[in-house]
Specification:
globular, eight-stranded mixed β-barrel, 9 strands
Length: 289
Amino acid sequence: MSCKKLMMGLVLAVALTAPAMGAPPAGAVSRPGAEGRATVPEGRAAGWQAGVTTFHGWAFDTCLAPSVDTMRRWSASAYQAVGVYYAGRGRACKRQPHLNHGWMRSVRGQGWKVLPVYVGSQSPCVTAKHKRGVRIGRYPWRQGTREGRDAVQKAKALGMRRSSPLYLDMEAYTYRKATCGNTTLAFVRAWDREVRRLGYVPGFYSSADSGVRHMETARRAGVRDLPAVMWFARWHTRPHLYREPVLAKNAWRPERRIHQYAGNVKEKHGGRKLMIDRNLVHAPVARIG
């Protein structure tokens, strides 16, 4: 995910139509339609437990949580949800001067939905050099359980209530290496199990051709304790939710997918410029108390 925040500008605007939709039209100024505007607790109809709140629409994520004033200015954009790197030993922007319980309540009051991202330990065969200092150790199950507990504790401290999703960020790795793949899968499963046990919804972010493909392979093999929501990164393509080639059409649906379709994009709204990643969402969002 995006680790930069540069001050340059490019306007995005969009009009939401259906889950598998075309790219937002450049230069448009309208906000998404009613389907993307509402945040609705429709969990039982979609197979979610009571209390899970889902959102269908556009989201951006950026390494450093913007100020409340910047978020207010960005309300003029088509985005209505924001990905927040709220915790984890592997996150790039460890100092988050704006991010606290007050920030969460303020942006909720402005109408924003929040996608909480936890960047924990990374795969032993992670490809990004800057992530190799936080690799999973010798006891992946124990470590995944511990970090799952940490993810929930940090979420609670920011006012995120039970039934909120917590998205584990696992950057690209060479999952076909058997030992590395097994270690990574054990960590993810333990993290998922602990997050579920504590009443939250475990989600998973990774590149479509590495971590996401790995989870789909495990799902087809009947592996348990897998993520409940799949946030897949496939850049340089039009936004879509149910046409991702590495995922079976009946997997992680309904209301269980996020497509990150562009990264490190420069945008300006309300006079404020950010470097962001773009996402199409139909998935759970945080319940903020």
